[in-house]
Each structure stands twice: as structure tokens, then as C-alpha cells.
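I'd like us to work through together how a protein chain folds, taking it slowly. To get us started, please write out a protein record for me. Go ahead whenever you are ready, and we will take it from there:
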Amino acid sequence: MSTTEKVVVGSSKPDLSSNDDGDEAVTGLTLGLLIMGLVLCIFLVSLDMTIIATAIPQITRDFNSIDAIGWYGAAFMLTLTGFSQLWGKAYGHFSMKWVIITAIVLFEVGSLICGIAKNSITLITGRAIAGAGGAGITNGCYTIIGVVAQREKRPAYAGILACTYGIASVVGPLVGGAFTSLVTWRWCFYINLPIGGFALLVLIAFFKVPAGAVTVKTPYADKLKSMDFGGVLLVMLALIFYILPLQWAGIAKSWVSGEVLGFLIASVVVVAIFVAYQIWMGERAMMVPRLIKQRRVLSLALFNMFMAGSFFIFMYYLPIYFQAIGGSSATGSAVKNLALILSSTVASLVGGALMMPVGYFHVFLLVGSTLCLIGGGLFLTLNTHLVVGNYVGYQLLFGIGAGLCFQAPVMVGQAFAKPSDMASTTAILLFFQTLGGAIFISAAQCIFTNRLAVHLLSHALEDGTFVPVSLITTLGAADLRGSLTEAQLEVVLPAYLAGLKSAWSLAAACAGASFASSLLAKFETMKSTINKKNDDVDTEAVETLNSPPEKPSR
């Protein structure tokens, strides 16, 4: 009996490192087609995070739904985060092929609903469904890389996924603006259907689950019990109770109002309940306590959360700077962001290729987060007069840093994880990444709008009146110059800059926190894991043969 066969005996968990010895690694044209399919999937999910940004003004005009603006983006991020761990469990207990097929179909259905939506509620529902599917796609792409590619080449392929992730996030507003201006905003969602359909066909035709990643047949009822739907519900509630008051605070409602304080307190309470629930669930938990307590996993998870926060804040708010302060169109702001796109792309490829040869992953985490911290700090020196050398140079610094370290935690986690823990470890790290995007983007938006409001209310026009805060918060960044007088712009533009710098300060702080988080893990090399993980496979095989089928702990 082979090692691969032994590992799956008596366990519903697959061996996700069956190709460590190269016997089952996919190569040649088949691997190329699979990578292409995965890249297309990641591209669509990442594109959906930002493509709607430049379409929102037209959507609000069509639906008369200014009060729903925040939910157009939040609904997607909410389910993208909340369902991340659930999909991780699914990849560990069901056929990987059918799980990712289900995720893609769900994402496509959500996109179709968004495209045909006739009102805000339908659009928000579609965004939520697409986000739930997107969570499964993101988890699946990294998990599949872990089972089909040769171990020493995984970081390079992960670098390709990271490049795709970053590029799609940055060009999203450009694509959304083009569709909205030239065709209709509905094509922001229709575009997912043909591309996603093609990727789906590629995976159906060419992805064969390696023998070592096939779970033994167990009753579906037992598998469903291990999915931790309760944990997903608690995460969703905690995020809703967190996001809602941040959208209200300081603008629609007072910070000390009962609604704002009540929801924030409820969020903290739900988080506490979630932690206790995860401890009680044990191995069935979406956040397996045994794994999250590992120093390395905790360090990488926190790094992922803070780095995602820093990355996405700059991704969202640099285009606003170019449009509001620089007067650029959506297309022009995307062009001014090219330095960030290109630098992060090249750095991701270089980092992915060098990670395994270098071995010491801390090099990438520390250097990357340091460059992000420096670049993020320099963004705070920008003013109302755009200087090309400044904003290009700062983007290069930040982009290189983000590219070097953004995909590193998942690859490091997979390299050190035991075979049976790879799916859960990957899901934990991706969960914290999307969590960082969700919580810090919401926090940045709150900081931005509050600082903007304070500045507007403290700077009167020459006639003694003030520019209404409600007017500015409902205008798009690109609409300021076409909607305001010169006198109003003299007050509004500095207010916008003050708000942006406050949001960027949070992003820079997140970069610093990611640097500190990387120091929690001990310094070690990934090279030593090749022999060690092969030994772990043999050890798990013997332990599995000599023990009864695993029963989830309560």
C-alpha cells in the first residue's frame, strides 16, 4: 500500500501534499490550462471588489438609493469574509473539484442577479451571493495550487495568483467606469458570465483530484455536522454589527447615540461568543483552536489581516485622491495608478520565484512590510498639488513591498502545515486576509467621512455659510469640479485631502502592525520542510492505520 493510500484510510481529511514527492504533480499543458483557469477565477473575484466603485453614482441615480451606497460594496465583502472558512472546511471534506464548481456557479448566479437587478435590494442580494461564491473560489484556487503543483514551484504559481489579484483590484474602477460610460453599469456583472463560464469548463475538463486528496466515503450528515454553520452565522453577525455603526457614526448619527454604541457593543459580544464557540467545537470549528494557537499560524494570520488592510485602503483611496484632488477621470486615475500595478506585479513574481530558494520567509515579510510602511508614510506628504515624481515613487515603494509579502503567508502556511491540515490552514489565512479588508476598509471610510465633515464644518465660505456635508458625501469624487463653485472647491478639496490623509494614516499603521506581527513567528527556513513533511506523511499514515476513524470533538 502506498503512502498516499495509507493517509486517507479511516479519515475524512485528504492528504493535500500528496505531490510533495512529485509523483502526482501536474505538468505541461494540463498544468498551464489549470493555472489559466485559476487565474481567470481569481481575476473575476478580485475585479468584483472594486469594479463597482466608479459605477455607484449611476446606480444610485437609476435606483434613487443614495442610502444604500455603502451596502453595494459591503454586501460582497461581508459574505466573502463570512463564508471563507466554511469553504475551507468543504475543501477538506468533499471533492475539491465539485466544491470549486459549486463556488463558481454560485458566483455566476450572484453576478447574473446583479446584472438584471431592478432595485437596490435585488442588487445587494446578488452582491451577497456573489461574495459567498467568491470566498469559495479564492480558497479553492490556493488549495488546488497546493495539490497539483510541485512543492518547490507553488510559491511562483501563488505569485501569479497574487499578481492577478492586485492587477484586477486596481483596474476594477477603470473597467467599471468604461462600462458605465460606454455601455451600461450592468456589464460590470455580465462580464463575469462568459469569463467565469470558460474557467468553469477548463476546470471541469482538466482538473482531476490527486488520489492523495480524495476523502474516504463517509455519510453526508457527518460531513455537514463538521461544517460549522454556527460559526459562519456568528462571523456574519459580528461584521454586520461592526459595519453598520461605522457607516452611521459622525454623519447620520452621533457617536454616542444608542444605535451606534449598541451595535458596537453587540459586535464585541458576538466576537466573544464566537471565540468561546470555536473552543467548544474543537476540531469541527471553522477556526480550529489547535491550529490558530500555533505561533506560526497566528503570526501569519495577523500579518495577512493587517497587510490586507493596508493594501486595500490604498487601493480604494488613491484613485479618490487622483479624481478629487487631481481632477482626473476614472480612466486617468487608473493610469496614475500604473506604478502601483506594475511594481506589485513584478515584485509578486520575483517574490514567488525566490521564496523557496531563499527559504527564510521572514526576509519577504519584513522587507515587504517595511517598504509598505515607508511608502505609506510618504503618501501622507502628498498635497493638493500633484507632483508626478512623488506619487509615482511612493507607489513604487509600496507596490514592491506589497508584492513581496502579500502572497507569502498562504505559501508559508501550506509549506509547514501537516498534510491533513493544509485545507484548514489555507482557509484560516485567507479568512484573516478578507477579514482585514472588510474591517479596515469600513474603518477607513468612517475615518475619511468624519474627518471630511469636521473640516467642512470648521471652514466657512466667504459669505459665512458652510458647504453641506450631505452634499459632499453624496457626490462622487470625479463630480466635485462639475458640481461645485470655485469658492466651494477651495474649502472642499482641503477637506477631502484631510480625510484621505486620515485614512492613509490607518493604512500606514496597518503596515507597521504587519511588520510587528511577523516577529511573532520564530525564524526558520522553509527548505527543511521538504524532508520533514515527507516524514509527517509517513507518521500520519501509521497513526491513521492504528487508530479508529476520527470523531470530531465537542
Residues 1-18, 534-554 have pLDDT under 50 and may be disordered.
